């Protein structure tokens, strides 16, 4: 019988953080658990590295990003605002002192390519540009002259050259960004721009 995830890396840190090169992840918009909504994320060796499992009847505005063994890495929580969509990201399962927040760009006066802004307190760190719906967007560091730190791209099939569609795509993370942060931003973009 073929396994969906043939082996687990020992720890999250061993599998992703020791690289000086870009990390290429395959993101599948599907939970491995029955009757769940979520994500399953593999590294380039086919090892499961992240998962998100939300039961269909659970609140959609509180999400936990876990490593392969189910340990919580980040909590993502929607904040109710009068203008726009805002999400806060916390370390582990804590709900205090967010690591960063991401806010959907709703202004027609600002950059139309900009999907969202990522900030710590009131300082903007990253801007997300492109089209999440087309799985063609990038996360740029505004402090480093808009240097690309992560990119979401369509994943093409190795045989036949077709595409997997919108539910399977690549997340390419440069060494300047933690893969768990890039994945958290991907989840937030999915919540902001997903058409149900």
From TrEMBL:
A Pfam family matched in the record: LOR
Coiled-coil regions listed in the entry: none
InterPro entries listed in its UniProt record: LOR (IPR007612), LOR_sf (IPR038595), Tubby-like_C (IPR025659)
Gene3D superfamilies hit by this protein: LURP1-related
PANTHER family for the chain: PROTEIN LURP-ONE-RELATED 8, PTHR31087
Family: Belongs to the LOR family.
Name of the protein in question: Protein LURP-one-related 8
